């Protein structure tokens, strides 16, 4: 469990501070919210086939996707509870958002990183999401289904080097790579609808 928490800490910017505090000396943990999240992710990952980083990536990617989808239409406080209730992300939207998030975060290595975590297609995103829902880490709506993630795009095409380079160049040329409040780049907003 210790190794799993350390791996997540190294791969997930938002959890790094809290996880390192907890893994260095769990008895003096200041942030009790993070430890259950890490333990749940590690527990899920221990059942295979996905690496713990894949679960942390999906969590971060969901935030990224929701921000991309809803920050354009709703200019409210991101901590506003009512906004969170009205920001449902479909399986298709999340699959596209996770692909874009992987490109933004890992660039040309995006496909390799996901493969290393045993994520080979959008179906795997769905399996990870529904494991997280089953464990209480994420919530869903009644109409949500794991099949909503199936066959959204082909990873070979989506992460084709020429395409990834074009996306990165487009972001750089548009000058949209400004930092958001959460430290992520806003440059992939134009990608929200592209999937091939």
Count the domains: 2
Q: Indicate the structural class.
A: mainly alpha
- The H/E string reads HHHHHHHHHH
Percent of residues in beta strands: under 5%
The helix tally amounts to: 10
Helical content (DSSP H or I, runs of 4+):
55-70%
**What are the segments in which pLDDT stays under 50 over at least 5 consecutive residues?**
9-36, 186-196
Main pleated-sheet profile: none
* Whole-number mean pLDDT: 75
Q: Quote the distance from N terminus to C terminus.
A: 38 Å
Number of strands: 0
Characterize the overall form.
globular
The radius of gyration is 17 Å
Explain briefly what this protein structure is.
The protein contains ten helices and no strands.
Structural write-up:
With 196 residues, the protein is mostly helical. The longest helix has 19 residues, at 52-70. The protein has 10 helices and no strands. α4 (52-70) packs across α6. The protein is globular, with a radius of gyration of 17 Å. 56% of the residues lie in helices and 0% in strands. The chain has 2 domains: 1-47, no CATH class; 50-191, no CATH class.
Sequence-ordered SSE layout with sheet pairings:
Blueprint: H1 2-11, H2 16-24, H3 34-46, H4 52-70, H5 81-85, H6 91-106, H7 110-116, H8 122-134, H9 155-158, H10 161-174
Key words describing this protein structure:
mainly alpha; 2 domains; 10 helices
């Amino acid at each position: 469990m210790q190794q799993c928490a350390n791996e997540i800490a190294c791969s997930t910017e938002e959890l790094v501070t809290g996880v390192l505090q907890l893994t260095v000396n769990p008895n003096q943990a200041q942030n009790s919210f993070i430890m259950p999240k890490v333990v749940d992710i590690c527990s899920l990952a221990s059942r295979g086939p996905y690496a713990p980083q894949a679960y942390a990536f999906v969590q971060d990617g969901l935030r990224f996707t929701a921000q991309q989808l809803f920050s354009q239409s709703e200019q409210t406080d991101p901590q506003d509870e009512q906004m969170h209730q009205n920001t449902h992300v479909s399986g298709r939207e999340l699959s596209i958002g996770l692909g874009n998030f992987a490109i933004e975060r890992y660039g040309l290595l995006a496909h390799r990183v996901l493969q290393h975590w045993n994520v080979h297609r959008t179906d795997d995103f769905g399996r990870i999401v529904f494991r997280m829902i089953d464990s209480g880490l994420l919530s869903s709506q009644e109409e949500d289904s794991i099949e909503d993630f199936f066959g959204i795009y082909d990873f070979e095409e989506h992460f084709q080097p020429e395409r990834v380079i074009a996306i990165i160049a487009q972001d750089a040329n548009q000058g949209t790579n400004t930092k958001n409040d959460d430290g992520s780049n806003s440059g992939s907003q134009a990608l929200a609808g592209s999937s091939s």
